[in-house]
Input
Amino acid sequence: MSSPADLTLAEASAGLRGGKLSARELLEATFDRASLTEAELHAYLTIDHENARAAAAAADEAQANGLWVGPLHGIPVAIKDNMVTAALQTTAGSQILAGYVPPYDATAVTALKSAGAIIVGKTNLDEFAMGSSTENSGYGPSANPWDTTRVPGGSSGGSAAAVAAGSAMIALGSDTGGSIRQPASLCGVVGMKPTYGLVSRYGLIAFASSLDQIGPISRTVEDAAATLEVIAGHDPLDATSYRGEYPRYRSLLGEGVSGLRVGVVAELSGAGIHPEVLSAFRSAVDSLAEGGAIVSEVSLPSMEYALSAYYLIAPAECSANLARFDGVRYGLRVDGATVEEMTARTRAAGFGPEVTRRILLGTYALSAGYYDAFYGQAQKVRTLVIQDFTRAYEGVDVLVSPTSPITAFELGSRTEDPLSMYLVDVCTIPSNLAGTPGISVPVGIDGAGLPIGFQIMAPALGEEVLFRVAAEVERASAWNNRRPPMVEADHGV
Amino acid sequence: MGRRVCMESVRGAPTIGGMAIDIDIAYVARLARIDLSDEELERIGRQLGGILEHAALVQQLPTEGVEPTSHPLPMVNAFRPDRVVPPLERDTALTQAPQAEDGYFRVPPTLEAE
Amino acid sequence: MEYEAVIGIETHVELATASKMFCGCPAQFGADPNTNVCPVCLGLPGALPVPNEQAIEWIVAIGLALDCEIAHRSQFHRKNYFYADQPKNYQISQFDVPVCSGGRLDIEVAGVVSRVRINRVHMEEDTGKMIHVGGGGRIKDADHSLLDFNRSGVPLVEIVTEPDLSSPQQARAFAQELQTIVLALGVSDAKLEEGSMRFDGNVSIRPKGTQEMGTKVEVKNMNSFRSLERALAYEIERQTAALEAGEQVLQETRHWDEGAGVTGGMRSKEESSDYRYFPEPDLVPIEINDTRREAIRNALPELPAARRLRWAALGIDPASIAVLVAGGSDLAGVFDGAVAAGADPKTVANWLTGEVTAFLRRELVDLGATPLTGGYLFELERLYAAGDLSSTAAKQVLVGVLAGEGSPAEVAEERDLIQISDTGALATEIDRVLAEHPAAYQRLKEGDPKVVGFLVGQVMKVTAGKADPKVVSTMLRQKAED
Ligand SMILES: [Mg+2]
Ligand SMILES: [Zn+2]
Output
């Protein structure tokens, strides 16, 4: 018998509405799955049994009284631990915030709760979302459910691993350079980064403010679109929040891709991409062509500079964003004879090596005499990347590429060489620089049994067409809603 | 077709405008207020050198007449009305403080005057 | 050698908005520590700033009042430096594209008018407040420090002049004129003692007649116009003495010590100049189009320079004008209201610069917080002009009105200050006094002028001071002629 933990959102909602499933049963199945997998995965930093159980009981009671709270009524959702949750420890994966309990909920968390979601807990991440493997967590790495000797990707590795393993039905991640899409790809789930400004950043602990965006991780494209409908919306507390219309993102699911123009990004689908990834990517492209899409190859010449620009812009912004962690008002404090010494010691003790590296890199890139050569130039390259995209979207509706050049790598295999880790994000970074949406959909597994992700990119506010193509890729792939081996027995396949 | 991003081929830009990249890493660490040992400074300095070689690729792209982008989407004038919202309770504001005293956050004495 | 001073002034003005610059916390002064704080102004993880629209309109108003260009598009930057009273360890400020640039302000010292160019006016946020405990409150001997973030995030406008001033007197005149403008605009309390208006001076000296700039010293911590003038004078003297002794002037920041009357060097911050400004990614650009700018310009209140001219034409003396202008828009509104209703300008100006100003100072209240209006002032002036109130009684009534006892007529009635100028009523009293003092009456009839004063005094006595002495005197003289 299969566990309710493996249902999709649509299935679970139908069950809950029809009285065949209670929110409590669904939550307990989710907790059971966590008990089964957490020792190996370490997807969560905090599981909030008590409040989640209370919320599930309340959802059932509301349902019994004929009250359907919202589209996520009774659905167990996990939150990446860089989004603040009132009265629930939030660490951003950093020792500098060990034990920190925020006084407020992030706007996206409020939106989930208002839609009836049950917050299961807070998921592991690379410290302050800086990393591509979740190995930079200040609380130990997470593992990939498909092979626990491998990384789940990052920085939203805990969220992707939890959704893949069924210890959450849906999770929120944040994506600054690929941190939703890349772990989704490595864990065989759907991960979506919305247009910059669509989901409020209020309450997201900032890494790089002009790049950060919250988005859903789920097991199906439809679930991702449904979740985005809940968390997207104008927020007066975020000055960069989009002020226009918010359509229904599921509106074009199932429409197919006939007549849509699909551009294969030449620079991101050749050299540097692992052959097995490339081959799965090519078959998925072929299936789109079979579905009636008009496929062409598109060149975006500035793509090869995007990674360099990103590794100046993101650290520069992070160097300022993380300056507030000074031991004065919250978080860790290491004593010193003066406040200056206290702060310097606190930051040395509280930040891990990757965060320290990026703060120093960003500080340097902004410092007197280097600004123009580094940060200023990177911002101009950013303009060129945007112009490349704009030009490309004049001729195609969506762009596609592999999500990650490689599948899940061995834990510890890249930690010694920061640059080799950065290169993993080469396909996802350009959308962050441009502020445009992107999604990763699983399309197959490699010879080692590891998932391969397919990335679709669309112009700003092009979410509807993005989901439309993603749904077709999902439908046509040989993926068939696979589960990692570690939960197959429980899944009952 | 344009040049491809290749994980092996991205290295090879060891200079900024013909000058070797030099980093006064101790100065940078002081600016960032992180207390690092000489050994750590030396190691991080070396790593940053490698990353900056790669980052310096941005200088190879001609950008004359190109405006810098600091916001991905063109938006202006996001304001709030001048309306008071109830602040936090003081206990809530102070509860996470490593040290508090008489309604204040408490810190060691300061070296510098602003 | 003779030296001349080159002075530039940086002014910080806290705006009197209801809420802070980037969050909804109350911006008011004087609350208990850390009671006006929220995730944004405490720099909590995840919090984001959203700019106060009123503050943006007010900085544009300040810029227009100083004849500045208003940028069509400007932007916030982050100014990065660590200081424990600054929650994010960066200040949201402006860098290369401030809201206003290139203005001017004319000042007058001893009858000489000079023009001070304004380099820029930009928007930023205030820091929290740090209290040094132990060691007599001195920074370097303190045992520990306490932090209050109530002021953190209060909107702050920074006004930077070109180095166009050449004497401490000019600097003081500039500061005072700027304060009157800010008060006229009604955008700040501009209180030096509470720090809602703060002046820093940049001072250098050079041999008279030369063009090259000397080494610049920044002088801070002056919290009155007097101390601004004193501190700059001290600093010019100190630098002159140094150069004359063959020493160099160090580029540094010095604090004015009001008690000792000297400026002292501060431990200089090692990397103080490397602020790593970059565009604030949490905030989008500010766009002020011509329509909006002109709407703000059209809504500007009358500025001090125009007020001075208008009031001088009413015959008000320059000293009174100075006090009236310094009183800001509230005082101007009351004065103009009374005059517009038909009150005598000089009488009203005397009361405002005398009793009213004294009352506000004594009671530590703002005019706006009292019930006094132009209408009340007009009513009072009418009572006085009609002879219903003596000059002394009118001033007493004014104090009563300020204290909230009611309208002038009500206060006069309640305090029983109405003069008896009704000749019928007075005639009875006069007859009674003359009957009681036949000898004096006789002298009056004989035309002895000295006895009039005595008899007026007697009438005042029997009427408990309420008789109008002028009327009584006239009536007595008439009696003598009868
Ligand atoms: Mg300033
Ligand atoms: Zn606040």
Q: What stands out?
A: Chain B touches chain A through 64 residues (CB under 8 Å). Chain B is about 25% helix and 10% strand.
